[in-house]
Amino acid sequence: MTPENRKPETENLLIIGGGLAGSEAAWQAARRGVKAVLYEMKPWKFSPAHQSPLLGELVCSNSLRAESIDSAVGLLKEEMRRLGSLIMAAALATRVPAGKSLAVDRERFAGYITEALENEPLISIVREEVTALDRDRPTIVATGPLTSEPLAAALATITGQEHLHFYDAIAPIVHAESIDMGKIFRASRYGAGDDYLNCPFTEEEYAAFYQALMAAEHVPLRPFEEPRYFEGCLPVEVMAARGYLTLAYGPMKPVGLTDPRTGKQPFAVAQLRQENREGTLYNLVGFQTKLKYHEQEWVFRLIPGLEQAEFARLGSIHRNTFIRSPGLLSPYLNFFQYPNIFLAGQISGVEGYVESTAMGLLAGINGARLIQGRPLATPPRATALGALIHHLTNTATKDFQPMNVNFGLFPPLAGRVPKKQRGAAYSQRALIELAEWMAGKG
Ligand SMILES: Cc1cc2nc3c(=O)[nH]c(=O)nc-3n(C[C@H](O)[C@H](O)[C@H](O)COP(=O)(O)OP(=O)(O)OC[C@H]3O[C@@H](n4cnc5c(N)ncnc54)[C@H](O)[C@@H]3O)c2cc1C
What we know:
This protein is α/β, with parallel strands linked by helices. It contains twelve helices and 16 strands.
């Protein structure tokens, strides 16, 4: 059945997965007057990374990354705000200090989303695992990188090709009271505030930490599990294995930081970012890892200031399921072959909390339009939303990898724009085109 000959509003929209994408999709459908039934398998079944029964759970970092609209991810957030995003409203209501980033108190964030969805009369929430797909029923699959096995298998029969998977790693979280505040200092880089706790290393301390990291045991991978990481989320030990100074130039770089006790820039720095509003928990920025738990406890206690650290959560490693979307998904996020089935979130082939939410937003809009018998819609390519859709639908299949939003995905700017002004120029163009598109689509 095509969207045009479907009878208006005779059906509910089925949404599978109450994470970031599914929650946003349900909200968008309801905003358009469409009834949505949101299936979530928690609390009866948890993926290896989910822990909370709440909807919209953040499984790792509490940061939604850069806030400035001169950055691609900042622009994407602004576009979503303008389209009435529930997840963006939740983030603003529950934010914690994080310099130039938008970080949230994860419990309050998920609580806000859960309450909003539970109080929305057009949304019904069913706590049940979905194990099969009905190809004729309007459905959004938003089950994330840790989609349960039966549904992943059902999806594989729809896509006609094996779903793909690789591995992501989680950074450890430390109780604030166990940090030795006498050894560390508060500062953001280049004097932009004091949101981060910095653990300064001397050259000798760095050498000892590096050796320990290299000697520690990793979680063994099964033979068929060839790890394929994103450069932006490499396990700390994988980065360290590239060279003695790789960390000192990467997540442990000391640039823009002066230790007030010495008046000098340390040799290296481990940064801790506030995890909850109360400031009782801090995460080790960039220390995602697949070291064994007992190894993490002694290796990370070699970080100056963390000698007595109590860990609220240790780092870990998880599967990431996603679909090779080019050739399978339309720019409206439904399958060419099965137009009633939409994909949203990380499983559609994007990477990151914000990007996953964005795909939930668009799938929610189009799921609602399908039910209402209205033509499906996709934002202009020059917007951050449109640039992501372009990546999902136009990348050569052979090279396809899930992607964070970045200005490299946008059409080039007209004329020569100085480097420092490019972010602002991309954003200005995007927001004008988004406004025109929104006006045209009502
Ligand atoms: C371990 C790990 C760490 C990550 N860390 C970060 C990070 O720090 N920053 C970042 O930007 N991105 C991170 N990501 C990537 C990605 O942004 C997140 O996974 C994000 O939560 C994806 O959103 P989503 O809505 O697609 O999926 P999710 O938020 O995972 O939501 C999917 C929901 O579907 C439910 N579900 C699954 N199967 C079924 C089923 N069959 N029936 C019913 N319900 C089902 C799950 O319980 C879950 O609630 C990480 C991913 C992983 C795996």
